[in-house]
Amino acid sequence: MNQPRREFQVELPIGYTDESGRLHRSVTIQKMRGHEEALFYDTSLSAGRLITELIKGCVVRIGDLPEATSQLVSRLFSADRNYLVVQIRRVTLGDHVTSRYACRGCGAEISAVDDLGRIEVRRGDAAQATAIQVELEDGYRDNEGTVHRSLSLRLPRGEDEEFVAQMTDSDPLRMRDALVLRCIQSFGTLRRAALEGFGLKLLRDLTLGDRRRIYRALDDDSPGVNFRRTVTCERCGEAFKAVLEVSGFFELG
Fold it and tell me: What's the gap between Cα 31 and its chain centre?
């Protein structure tokens, strides 16, 4: 009699580079258990911390590292964390997930079944994750009148998600700007003290076009799982872009 598989090996889109410079991309995972299900009912966990503990509980090993600690999982790029959540969902509950959207044309509720086995995964390397160059069109004008257009970014990590999730307000735009701000490595000739001092105001002073350029660099053009999909409303025929919600991956009865 065939025994069910207990461990599954996957390859991270980017990978984890340890202190000695070695890249670890191969990860062995296992199915979710009751321990991980209980995390969804722990009100003390922020959304970012929940993902960290979920991954930690389901990861058997990362490369040949001795242990997948919470600290290590927090250091993973968000792109790799999202990928692991998808793979954990697949081995635990299967490839098909029901998603719900609201039509932007007529407001009808749309129920669609997505196949996680066919979802696009863009793969890259550490250079693509830590040295993202963006040239803004309008840029940021400082108090001396200098316009700064060249932006250097890195992709967010789990620890960035955890930090932003601690914010007490529920303003999604402010939380997104806070995440972007943590990913800025340099902005023109602005000093680090100036970046930290200006804070969210710096990002709010940018034009919408420049803000979209930053979003594309961090989301659409970067390695990781492509959660964007096109949804068509059967009632009115409207086709619109939507994002597959990771929060709906685990149906808890």
Answer: 21
